[in-house]
Design goal:
elongated; alpha+beta
Length: 487
């Protein structure tokens, strides 16, 4: 007789990932909210207006003040014009931006993230549209949890249409930085824009719509690396959003029948556990649990708490911008020390900023209008002539970074008796100096032949310097090698 046994059902595994809960930030009024509005307006104005500012650079030059002309390999920034070989200025600018970010973080935490980061700016704008269309926090929650009706569908459609309009303007404005803005706008209105331009506009429209409309705080928490770095930038004297635990604990709702003296005698603090600071937070954290990685330092929780403290007739500043050093002193009842703005890391960042900025400014002030590059032929390495002389061929490029046609004189140094010839030139024979020209704002390419008597060669590879001198005395040189047979 066989025994039938029930096969045990496999246990349901717990998920290792927390399901993302949508955050519904509540609107708030106060000084930090006003600062954020001012920053938002300023940042958006700069972004949308900058491509339309004109800058006269002379004839046959683009008149757009800020233009990253990838097609013609030029970067224009008002009076600055950068060529591809001057990309080190961009490197310096990126290092300078990083140091400025380090300095700002060491002084005031994630102040950049809270007020000037593009993700924050556009998320704030999208949230404003959402509140305008769907209402305040409670109304938005009820709308999302309710059944789909014509009213709900209409609101969602209107909100997303406005979001897409903002995203389209954002993507279009970004492309304007890479080509002439009025010309591209005319092409777009006539439906004659290139597929490349349309493709990039669609790409940036889509990313803006998704990141600012839906990803929001997840970008700041999971996608952005800065939250992981900030702990290395701040210290106990950095000005960050803090909750005065010594004053606020223990938390308990405020009862009308309970006076503050009675509440204090019961061991209760000023925090009435209203969760206002949590409801206004754009990343949904509770600052009362201490400084957290997700906190972007926007200060909206400060405004929310101050509003409640004023309403219940208690001193403001329960949640405030302060340093850990001062908070520790206040918690122990001692006099808090003054802010220490001048600290070793601040000094290091400041000196680095001054050094990099000084180098960039000095480089721009002394930026040459002439540059040369040389590429020696590799096949053949050299040619032995009938009279015993040895010839090398070079591709010689002149970058005329001025707005005028220029004439130059090319000479060679390093080898006695070196003579120059230019392929295809009307000048006959070989000479010790050759005349070359370059059109304005162009790269002129020449094929140069350098011939050296056999007696001047003492090694199979010897240094050779080609020197180009402009009529105004400006010079550019390039150090290369001259190859010949082994002695």
């Amino acid at each position: 007789m066989s025994t039938v046994t029930d096969t045990p059902k496999p246990e349901k595994r717990a998920s290792l990932f927390l399901k993302q809960s949508k955050i519904y930030p509540k609107s708030v009024h106060g000084r930090f909210r006003r600062i954020k509005w001012a920053a938002l307006v300023a940042m958006l104005a700069i972004y949308y207006i900058l491509p339309w500012i004109r800058w006269n650079r002379g004839p046959n030059a683009p008149d757009q003040a800020v233009l990253l002309d990838i097609e013609h390999r030029r970067f224009y920034l008002f009076f600055v014009e950068l060529w591809p070989q001057q990309i080190y200025y961009l490197t310096g600018a990126l290092i300078l931006a990083a140091l400025l970010l380090f300095l700002a973080t060491s002084l005031a935490g994630r102040v950049w993230c809270g007020y000037a980061c593009p993700q924050t700016v556009w998320t704030d704008l999208f949230l404003w549209v959402e509140r305008l269309v769907e209402g305040e926090r409670g109304e938005r929650i009820r709308l999302d949890q309710g059944q789909w009706t014509a009213r709900k569908l209409g609101r969602k459609a209107l909100k997303n249409t406005l979001w897409l309009g903002i995203a389209l303007a954002t993507g279009g404005a970004w492309i304007f930085y890479f080509t002439d803005a009025p010309a591209l706008l005319g092409d777009l209105l006539r439906f004659q824009a290139s597929s490349t331009a349309v493709g990039f506009i669609a790409l940036f429209t889509g990313t803006t719509y998704l990141l600012a409309g839906f990803a929001r705080e997840q970008v700041c928490t999971y996608m952005c690396p800065w939250p992981r770095f900030q702990s290395a930038m701040i210290d106990e004297d950095s000005l960050v959003v803090t909750y005065q635990e010594w004053r606020g604990e223990g938390r308990a709702p405020l009862r009308k029948s309970q006076g503050w003296a009675e509440r204090s005698a019961a061991g209760l603090g000023d925090c009435i556990d209203c969760f206002n600071c949590v409801q206004v937070c754009p990343v949904g954290i509770d600052i009362r649990n201490g400084l957290q990685m997700q906190c972007i330092g926007c200060g909206l929780c400060v405004d929310a708490c101050d509003e409640i403290m004023t309403r219940i007739d208690r001193p403001t500043g329960l949640v405030t911008f302060d340093t850990q050093t001062r908070q520790t002193a206040l918690a122990t009842g001692t006099k808090p020390p003054p802010y220490r703005w001048l600290r070793p890391r601040v000094v290091v960042y400041g000196l680095g900023i001054l050094a990099i900025a000084g180098a960039i400014v000095a480089g721009l002030l002394t930026k040459p209008g002439l540059d040369v590059s040389v590429l020696r032929d590799r096949a053949p390495l050299y040619v032995a002539l009938a009279d015993g002389a040895v010839r090398n061929a070079y591709t010689f490029k002149i970058s005329n970074m001025t707005r005028d046609a220029r004439a130059y004189t090319l000479t060679a140094e390093g080898l006695d008796g070196a003579a120059l010839a230019v392929a295809g030139a009307d000048q006959g024979g070989e000479e010790t100096a050759r005349r070359l020209t370059a059109a304005p704002d162009m790269v002129a390419t020449y094929r140069i032949f350098v011939t050296v008597p056999r007696g001047s060669l003492h090694d199979s590879s010897q240094p050779l310097t080609l020197i180009l001198t402009a009529a105004n005395g400006e010079t550019a040189s390039y150090r290369t090698v001259f190859l010949g047979p082994s002695p």
